[in-house]
Write a structure and sequence with these properties.
This protein is mainly alpha-helical. 54% of the residues lie in helices and 0% in strands.
């Protein structure tokens, strides 16, 4: 086995570097005079009350020594003006739950939102916030099934964001399949076998178990299925491009 110190590494510091970078973005918010709503708050009225520009302004009676949470809740409010206060609260809870520590009732309150008002949230939130919501269940789901589903979708959507961003530099639009006669040569990483357009099933093997799990999960299952349905209908992702390439391959082989 070769010495890793002699290799060219993507992350020279290895696990320690990555974990330190990850933790540097997870410092808990400081609360000075502010607080999340109590865990037993009546959530139903928040579905009917809108966020106004007033939520984005600092008020004269606020503590002079502001915490980082005060700045964050005003910044998040800018994205929810005209939306429901419940959708806004969901955003604030996600922001807190991404940190290494948070108010002790934050996870339970987040779980309540989705257990009691998932239909409202699915309709009110854009897809970016829906993805953030389902990812949050990876660490803060109430059950093992919720956490497993959250973990699976966090990995799926996180990797999609990385490779779709890299694809932008190819100059190829997201909806346009790559040309099959322009395939580069060379091995895949970790000695992986190349994907087969004719018989490959990796796309199904990735998506089907997640979808199956989502259909059986009562709390976040509707959210997960909504996102997977949206992915299925979106023509700007690797799964649609591979499907188009597979169809083109079949047509060409059928003519020959």
């Amino acid at each position: 086995m070769s010495d890793m110190s002699e290799q060219s590494l993507t992350y020279p510091g290895g696990a320690e570097e990555l974990i330190a970078r990850w933790n540097s973005r997870r410092e808990p918010f400081l609360f000075y005079g502010q607080a999340l709503p109590p865990p037993d708050i009546d959530l139903a009225p928040l579905t009917r009350i809108q966020v106004t520009k007033n939520f984005t302004r600092k008020h004269p009676d606020e503590a002079r020594a502001e915490g980082t949470y005060s700045e964050k809740h005003r910044r998040v409010a800018k994205e929810f003006i005209g939306n429901s206060q419940l959708a806004y609260l969901n955003g604030l809870l996600i922001a807190n739950l991404r940190r290494s520590a948070q108010p002790p009732h934050a996870a339970a309150l987040f779980q309540r939102l989705w257990a009691e008002h998932s239909d409202h949230l699915i309709a009110a939130l854009d897809k970016r916030w829906l993805v953030s919501s389902v990812m949050t269940f990876a660490d803060h789901g109430q059950t093992d099934r919720q956490r497993q589903l959250g973990q699976a979708l966090r990995m799926l959507f996180g990797l999609m964001k990385l490779y779709e961003f890299e694809r932008l530099f190819s100059g190829t639009p997201a909806h346009k399949p790559f040309k099959q006669n322009n395939k580069a040569r060379g091995p895949l990483p970790l000695e992986m076998e190349p994907f087969s357009l004719r018989n490959g099933g990796l796309d199904s093997f990735l998506l089907a178990p997640i979808w199956d799990m989502a259909r059986a999960e009562p709390v976040i299952g509707p959210l997960a299925c909504h996102l997977l349905d949206a992915l299925n209908a979106d023509d700007r992702n690797v799964f649609r491009r591979l499907a188009a390439m597979r169809d083109d391959y079949a047509r060409r082989k059928g003519v020959e």
